[in-house]
Amino acid sequence: MRETARTDHVAIVTGANHGIGAATARALAARGVAVLCAHLGPGGEEVAEGIRRTGGRAAAFEADLGDPAASGTLFDVAEERLGPVDILINNASGWVQDTFTPDPADRFGRPLQPVTAETWSRQFAVDAMAPALLIGELARRHRARGAGWGRIVGLTSGGDLGFPGEVSYGAAKAAQVNYTLSAAVELADLGITANMVHPPVTDTGWVTDEVREFVASSGTHFHVAEPAEVAETIVFLASDAAGLVTGNTITLR
């Protein structure tokens, strides 16, 4: 077993059971960061176990971020198992594909549903409320222990005209952008940086040949990325080298 060089940093990565979240958890651990793999559904313990097998420190904890109490619980668990948290990766999404149109499916054949109070509530609970509460929890505990270094990275999506076909998803991500960029200003005196990453089309299991053709013909999409490629940018933003990078939405293409 290869021994990973250990640091004193501890991260919470939400949605760490698959895709970009799992890749980010692994990449952070490979750099010596202890990681709490927060997840809903299967896969989180497998990611944590894989990290431990390669000499890293990791734990998994299942939590529904739609529950307002989950934010405090995640920090309690991370502190108990790994130590004080100074890196927060808001990756999880309560993704629902809702729309104002009567169309039953999008251009790629994925089913659409109308905007309802239920679709709005689920999306905003996980993609806007939970990141806000997690940021607040990090700030409170950070200040209480007199810490002077911290990193917040969130993930967003959508564009200048929102996110047609996934309207609540795009709106909730826009709210998360505002929370995170506000944190960059308000928490700067604590040594905390806060940035958002806008990934390119990323193959987390949903990309088809039709999606690849769409990207190839697009004037604004350049790559279909692998989760590990996106994770590299997230890990950079969570490093010492990114100390001057804060208050940005970094678009990957």
UniProtKB/TrEMBL annotation:
InterPro entries: NAD(P)-bd_dom_sf, SDR_fam. CDD domains: SDR_c (cd05233). GO terms for molecular function: oxidoreductase activity. The keyword Oxidoreductase applies. Coiled coil: none annotated. Signal peptide: none annotated. The keyword Oxidoreductase applies. Keywords: Oxidoreductase. It comes from the Bacteria. PANTHER family: OXIDOREDUCTASE, SHORT-CHAIN DEHYDROGENASE/REDUCTASE FAMILY (AFU_ORTHOLOGUE AFUA_5G02870), SHORT-CHAIN DEHYDROGENASE_REDUCTASE FAMILY PROTEIN. Belongs to the short-chain dehydrogenases/reductases (SDR) family. This is Putative 3-oxoacyl-[acyl-carrier protein] reductase. It comes from Streptomyces himastatinicus ATCC 53653.
